[in-house]
Write a structure and sequence with these properties.
This protein is α+β, with helices and mostly antiparallel strands. It is 32% helix and 18% strand. The model has no long low-confidence stretch (mean pLDDT 82).
């Protein structure tokens, strides 16, 4: 089993071009701090990145209207945050042409859940 992780756009395999070679292959999906920083430094070579916060507030405010909306739609705060992260990632990739998404939970704390 291979753990190789390609990063970058996979272009048309039936029409190879020089841009098709503009990819990075990691030998493992886990990165130590040194390799992570090296990956982020590739921005100068066309591998732009964006950092998305994966945390969400412990309490988002408990207005009756907001709680009622959530009860009616049967959606949890976690589900709403996951949908929001998905939209942020899609916008970064499709709109901003970002090559690397960094998902972080560094803002987690007493009032924010990862």
């Amino acid at each position: 089993m291979s753990l190789v992780c390609p990063i970058g756009p996979e272009l048309n395999l039936l029409d190879p071009q020089p841009a098709s070679c503009h990819r990075i292959f990691l030998d493992t999906p886990l990165l130590d701090p040194r390799r992570f920083m090296a990956l982020l430094e590739l921005e100068r070579k066309g591998f732009t990145h964006v950092t998305l916060d994966m945390t969400y507030p412990l309490t988002e405010g408990s207005s009756r209207a907001r709680l009622a909306d959530r009860a009616i739609s049967k959606r949890s705060l976690l589900r709403e945050r996951l949908d929001q992260i998905s939209k942020e990632a899609e916008a970064a990739i499709m709109g901003d042409r970002v090559a690397i998404l960094v998902l972080t939970h560094r803002r987690a704390g007493e009032d924010r859940l990862p």
